[in-house]
Amino acid sequence: MSQSFSRESAPVTYAEPASMTERPASGTLLAERLKPSRPSGWAAVVMHPTGLLHRAPLTVALAEAGFDVLSCPTRYRGKGASLLMEKVAFAVAAAVRHAREQLGASKVALVGWSGGAAPMALAQAEATGSSVGRLPDGTEYLLAEAGLTPADALVHVAGHRGRAHILRAWLDPSVVDERDPGLRDPGLSLFAEGAPTAPYDAGFLRSYRRAQRERHERLARFARQTLATYGDRVFTIYGTAADPRFFDRAVDPNERTTVYGLGDPASVNDGTEGIARFTSCQSFLSQWSVEDTPADAMPALRRIDVPYLMVENEADDVCPRSHVLDLVGAGDGEHMIIEHANHGYEGQPEKAADAAEVIRDFVPFRGSLFLVFFSLFFPALLGVLACLALSRATSSPSAVRMSASLTYCISTWQGTFTMRR
To answer: What are phi and psi for residue 12, nearest 5 degrees?
Structure first.
């Protein structure tokens, strides 16, 4: 049963220690707290690299399910051109620490939706053993010196491997010269006159994916060379919404009913709102380059040691199902499917509620085996003690009072356990 909640400002302050980087930064993240009327003791930290999730259907549903939700944006909200995943991981850990120290949460779950999945996994992995030592430009950034605070559970909802893998699958390989993006190879275009149509031939798909990988490698090579020679510079990438799965449901099949959840691919492909349209060289390497980004959820998941849950949306029109299955295998986690749910639960608040219920039911059981054992057997133990006591006290008024008291204790404990589920 859903419960009411209140909203309040919950600014999260952060300060990078001088021991971790030669250019430490500090500031405030404008987070919002969704406080349920009957707190469960669990907080849920939700964060997206560039988005704001304060009013997202999943965020609201988590609060209604009893989580004390901390919706925390990063310093890169709406500023993807300069985003560094290494610093996003630091922000995630700062939010976890805030949930424990300021919200009073006894347990914290990281809930990474969509593009939030990879940095959440990275943050949790880095909190248990750091591998990040430098930013792409060579600046020292020792996350091991940051004292990152780990969470108690990791949940991915409609999560993919990372932004780099998404970009590579969406790149338009018909762009043959980044300096002249209007020059295209029509044989590799999904939009040119006479272009192949779905269902696509297997041979065409192999050639197309190979050309995508080659273009992606050219972009990464350009970013590395420019950064090393001239320092950080910005550049524009055209053609970033050309995944064959947008048009052919047999490519990475699921139950999606729309081809592309972010608009018309033909318009978005070269439009102003396409992913990775405008980026710095350092940011490209940190978030968009498969070879360079630290925010790849698969290797990160292999390093975590907390319970992991993947919530798959059956009709997801953004996140590839192959990513979901890869992450479930890498994280050795639980896998639950929300039937007919789209990527962000747009127009589907009941599906968001289903996802929140799945998360609520997963967290206490996987988070504390002792709680499960104690909750199942403690009422039985009370019953045995009651029988022993009553057998000695016969039917005196004191025995009646003792019986009533024990019955009340049993019913109260069982009710508490049921509410926590």
So the answer is: -105, 115
> pLDDT confidence of 263, banded at 50, 70, 90?
confident
Q: Virtual CA dihedral for 55, 166, 198, 215, nearest 10 degrees?
A: 140
Contact, 4 vs 36, CB < 8 A? yes
Instruction: Output the pTM of the full model.
Output: 0.86
Q: Tell me the per-residue pLDDT of 241-256, one tens digit each, with 9 for 90 and over.
A: 999 999 999 999 999 9
Q: What is the structure's pLDDT at 122?
A: 98
Q: What does residue 247 show for φ and ψ, rounded to 5 degrees?
A: -115, -20
Alpha-carbon separation of residue 84 from 66, 136, 166, 244, 284 (angstroms)? 33, 9, 17, 29, 9
**Contact between residue 9 and residue 32 where contact means Cβ atoms under 8 Å apart:** yes
226 neighbors 233 (Cβ within 8 angstroms): yes
Q: Does an H or E element contain 371, and which?
A: helix 369-393
Nearest to 341 by CA among 362, 329, 358, 328: 358
Amino acid at 365: F
